[in-house]
Amino acid sequence: MIKTLSKADLPLPKPRVSDPEVLAAEIIERLTYGIGKDAKVATPHDWLTATILVVRDRIIDKWMESTRATYANNAKRVYYLSLEFLIGRLMRDAMSNLGLMDEIRQALGSLGVELDVIAGLEPDAALGNGGLGRLAACFMESLATVDIPAYGYGIRYVHGLFRQQMADGWQVELPETWLAHGNPWEFERRESSYEIGFGGGVETANGQNDETRFVWKPSERVIATAYDTPVVGWRGERVNTLRLWSAQPIDPILLDAFNAGDHIGALRESNKAETLTRVLYPADANAAGQELRLRQEYFFCSASLQDILRRHLQQGNPLSALPDKVSIQLNDTHPAVSVAELMRLLCDIHGVDFDTAWEITWKTFSYTNHTLLPEALESWPVPLFERLLPRHMQMVYAINAKILLDARKNRSFSDPEIRRISLIDESGDRRVRMGNLAFIGSHSINGVSALHTELMKETVFADLHKLYPDRINNKTNGITPRRWLMQCNPQLTSLLREAIGDDFLDDAGKLTALDAFADDASFQEKFAAVKRANKERLANLVASRMGIRLDPSAMFDIQIKRIHEYKRQLLNIIETVALFDQIRSHPERDWVPRVKLFAGKAAPSYHNAKLIIKLANDVARVVNNDPSVRGLLKVVFIPNYNVSLAEVMVPAADLSEQISTAGMEASGTGNMKFALNGALTIGTLDGANVEMRDHVGEENIVIFGKTAEEVGKARAEGYNPRATIEGSRELSQALSAIASGVFSPDDRDRFSDLINGIYQHDWFMVAEDFDSYAKAQRDVDAIWTDPASWYGKTIRNTARMGWFSSDRTIRQYNSDIWRA
Fold first, then answer.
1. Domain range holding 316?
2. Tell me: the pLDDT tens digits for 381-398?
3. How high is the pLDDT of residue 274?
4. Number of domain units in the chain
5. Are 668 and 658 within 8 A, CB to CB?
6. 486 with 443, same domain?
7. pTM for the complete prediction?
8. I need a labelling partner for 363 at 20 to 30 A (CA). Which of 419, 709, 733, 759 fits?
9. What are the names of the required cofactors (predicted)?
10. Residues 760, 636 within the same domain
11. CA separation, residue 244 to residues 83, 148, 303, 439, 516 (Å)
12. Domain shared by 52 and 183, yes or no
């Protein structure tokens, strides 16, 4: 007779071993019974899925162990709310962090399968756009690495941002079908489903002690269902959870309508729900796009908060203890509606009085600001917000009244100050300021570099900083060295281990030991050989994708990031045009061979950004086909920038372009990735470039251009770009060539408006910084011609970038903000 066991007595599965023979046997078993394929007819994709499932099994052992320990200790958890998680491919990441890379390679080799071949087939998860989402992914990995219990919350986008293709040099947006064949890393959690409402109205009812209760009765409802992906920390000591929400209709089909012949109308609710999680950042140039964006943000925030409160109460914790057991980090303003939603859940669902709920709320939330650009500090038209979220609009007004009355009575704020801190912007059409809501509803507000944090205090949040002078703090961004050194650059990692041992694998700060080898000729030769191999790999990729041949002995000068005017890809292209002219005009000079490489996506509705991509491609077509250049200059724009492409481009870079207008880049993380992998940075004193200069030494970075203070002063004093342009022969000639159609003979006026913008206002200081930038590029040439000097500087960059590990950043968040 089989004995019935209680749940507490149920046996735990035995941890799986990592012997290559056992792994090979398990891969065959998964191939057979998990996928239904005979090894003799299995495709590379079948082998990939089978291998992922075997690696996943070992992750699950650690995942359950981590979860059990957190529950047993009733430990405080960190919840990271982000609209983006740009996690990239996961198999190599998981194998490396579990220490399984060599064993899996041997296991697959014994089966006649190459690991590198199948690993390259794994799709990039299309869950992010750029730095914001990649930072969230690095943070999730570091949270597990430094042993902090955490959940990441976001949206399970079916198509994500978009797949970028080029049609005659123009960006074309196509759906990114990363989920078309399923995702073996995720687990659907049907039990973690929550109802999300929109629209309707608010009614009143009598509460327990005759107090008035507010009841929101939405006119629309959808179901949010959780999909969990395990996130493995270094050495596999902890596995945390990335929980992404998918939207489903309450009634998937209106059967009466279907039977009546209205087949399209019968699926109306289903289509409406699925639209919520189909695309990242729907174009918001129209009212429908704005509404969908707000719906997305509320959808994932409400589901996440309901999930957090359910878990908190399930462990027997009172709501009053929420700040002691829960820390919720808002990654930018996208999740800011969480402040109003938590207030609604506490007051309306759980019966907490308003003042107590507010005390719980602001002590639970913390907010990371990522930008000083006004358009990136979200705001919503009051009519839209009130129609879509009527109860939340009431909460916003109630919170606003509480804050403004306190500011007026107890802080003696003036009328202009009151207007600036208000949650409602009344300077034009009334709008709800989400940045102000996130600030007021959080006990901690952090910037992401030292410069950015100080500028926050002086600019966008000056009045709120006066109201709450102890809330703003700095947490300079970081990157995970596991993905951005050990995985993307295994040859360099092996060289470092040979030179300084393995300590840096567990503590990136130990990379400083490499300083002793910076001027060692033998080590420089090995370092250069690794860089050459990485450049050859990128050259092969460009040749296979684009049919363009690159010379790996040339300087690889790379700018990869979201296409935006403040990031100044345009400055780079204009200087390229000027260099093109100089090479042709002065063939007698010893020009340094350069390959200018660009990659990045432009928002679909951002006209000038898309025009900059077209200009880069038009310049490339002319430069690359001009025999008088003699191969000394090539220009390449690689389409569809994503994490996997970055993992090839970053290790291959000789020169890292970090040239944003000073005061406009909050931090940057691409700058850190390039320098860690032995590239020299050319950049402005913007974002984390300032701290990078301090860490690597000003002699090991090339700085140009105006400072943030000088940019502000020039704007305030009425800077005249036309006079600057006319005073620079190279700049004037380059702008004239672009504007007159030299690079666009099929449409000579194509770039005239873009160039006129520089003549008329030049908000991003392209003309003002041009001469300084061009001189800095010639300084780079001079360094390049002295290999000992070049490699001495780039080796010191690798040696001194350990401080920029996201492990350090997360530890600072925890010690200063979360205290988990």
1. 74-89+124-475
2. 999 999 999 999 999 999
3. 86
4. 3
5. yes
6. no
7. 0.96
8. 419
9. pyridoxal 5'-phosphate
10. yes
11. 10, 19, 10, 25, 45
12. no
